[in-house]
């Protein structure tokens, strides 16, 4: 087989693999057919440096209209007056904000990775690339959240330029309302990394960080927000100089061409979120709660007992007594259940290779039509694989059988709608 044939075969096998699995990685999702179609359009080979109407290339008349429509839809969906849709990942969105509002050596406050924070918030990630001095919030193990009083003291002490919130392991809303006045007193910007929960925010099923006190909301467009891989920056910025800082940090600072086929797919997803996002977000949270409760009843050590287990799409499970997160995640993959190993709040952040936990997301299964009853069955499959150590091939067969009726993407324009859009084109 030649090289091109090999690559194509791997792509086909990947499609088949995920089509016969239960994809439950919290940071992934599946796009609608109409959004996917945008990725193979001519936009994929074109350039559009700059902003709509002010490009450094000719031939941008149509992508200008796409980008402007994306901005309009994004402002409406998130009820804000500023948006940048050009960042090509959530990490680049974070780095743009770091570059706009902090200089090398400035202080930034955030959580540690073992407490759920993303790597871009750390010294070894984007914050370190910007040469920021990172200080970690104290953590309340009872609430699985930042410690409010300790965080106020830290902010008063280090006077950060940016107070950063949001996590990769993101179970519950951040107490921004209780913290915003203290942060404002030291002149810091409140930046909320909503990468994991962007779709839940859009659907009104998580806190609205911009209303709770955040100056800026950064995020990804491919997790609970079910679009193409990419990043986004949102906010209510009244100062034109500050707005310009963010714009310049994105282009020409960090992004040249911003992947125009991605932008077109984002536009389709924004339109679908305006139409179906509330129903989708509501079902995600229902599924997550039902799944966590089922795991708990089956004997798993689900974090958040007494707190409702989760308020997002995620469920965190301690599997240390079954060999740890790495071993369990690998076994589940062989059974057709795709999750990721994850540090839990009491783990050593310097030892991430075999943490105590796994992180599980239900957003993709909800996208394919699964509801609370199916979540109970999925929990039983985890028990068979992990606790009962049932034959992996036997569990895999049960997974394939369950998945058989849940292959179609929901909460999006149906085939008739998609066809009418094609006719308009």
Show unreliable segments. 421-425
* Mean pLDDT figure: 95
Number of strands: 17
- Amino- and carboxy-terminal Cα gap: 38 Å
Q: Kindly estimate the percentage of residues that lie in beta strands according to DSSP.
A: 15-25%
CATH topology of the domain at 33-272: the name is Aspartate Aminotransferase, domain 2
Under CATH, the homologous superfamily of the domain at 33-272 reads Type I PLP-dependent aspartate aminotransferase-like (Major domain)
Q: Note the overall shape.
A: globular
Query: Which strands sit side by side, in order, in the main sheet?
Result: 4-12-11-10-9-5-6
Most strands sheet: 7 strands, mixed
Q: Multimeric state of these chains?
A: single chain
Rg estimate, integer Å: 22 Å
Structural class label: alpha/beta
Helix content: 40-55%
Q: Number of helical segments? A: 16
User: Any idea what the CATH architecture of the domain at 33-272 is?
Assistant: 3-Layer(aba) Sandwich
**CATH class (first level) name of the domain at 33-272:** Alpha Beta
């Amino acid at each position: 087989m030649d090289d091109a044939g090999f690559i194509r075969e791997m792509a086909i096998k990947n499609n088949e693999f995920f089509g016969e699995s239960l994809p439950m990685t919290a940071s992934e999702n599946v796009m609608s057919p109409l959004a996917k179609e945008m990725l193979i359009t001519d936009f994929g080979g074109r350039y559009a440096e700059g902003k709509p109407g002010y490009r450094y290339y000719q031939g941008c008349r149509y992508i200008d209209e796409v980008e402007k429509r994306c901005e309009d839809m994004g402002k409406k969906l998130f009820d804000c007056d500023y948006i940048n849709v050009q960042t090509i990942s959530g990490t680049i969105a974070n780095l743009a904000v770091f570059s706009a509002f902090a200089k090398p050596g400035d202080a930034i406050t955030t959580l540690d990775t073992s407490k759920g924070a993303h790597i871009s918030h750390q010294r070894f990630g984007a914050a370190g690339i910007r040469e920021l001095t990172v200080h970690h919030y104290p953590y309340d193990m009872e609430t699985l959240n930042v410690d409010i009083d300790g965080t106020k003291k830290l902010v008063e002490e280090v006077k950060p330029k940016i107070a950063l919130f949001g996590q990769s392991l993101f179970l519950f809303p951040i107490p921004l309302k209780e913290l915003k006045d203290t942060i404002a007193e030291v002149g810091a910007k409140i930046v909320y990394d909503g990468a994991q929960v962007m779709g839940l925010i859009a659907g009104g099923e998580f806190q609205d960080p911009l209303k709770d006190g955040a100056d800026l909301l950064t995020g990804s467009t491919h997790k609970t927000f079910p679009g193409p891989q990419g990043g986004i920056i949102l906010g209510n910025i009244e100062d034109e100089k500050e707005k310009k800082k963010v714009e310049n940090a994105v282009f020409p600072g960090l992004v040249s061409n911003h992947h125009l086929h991605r932008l077109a797919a984002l536009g389709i997803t924004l339109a679908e979120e305006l139409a179906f996002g509330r129903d989708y977000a509501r079902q995600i949270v229902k599924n997550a709660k039902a799944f966590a409760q089922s795991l708990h009843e089956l004997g798993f050590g689900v974090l958040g007992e007494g707190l409702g287990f989760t308020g997002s799409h995620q469920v965190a499970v301690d599997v240390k007594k079954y060999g740890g997160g790495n071993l369990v995640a690998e076994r589940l993959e062989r059974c057709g259940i795709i999750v990721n190993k994850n540090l839990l709040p009491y783990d050593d952040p310097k030892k991430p290779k075999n943490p105590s936990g796994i992180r599980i997301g239900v957003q993709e299964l909800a996208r394919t039509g699964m509801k609370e009853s199916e979540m109970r069955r999925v929990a039983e499959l985890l028990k068979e694989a992990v606790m009962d150590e049932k034959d992996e091939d036997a569990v895999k067969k049960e997974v394939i059988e369950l998945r058989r009726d849940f292959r179609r993407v929901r909460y999006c324009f149906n085939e008739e709608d998609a066809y009418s859009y094609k006719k308009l084109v």
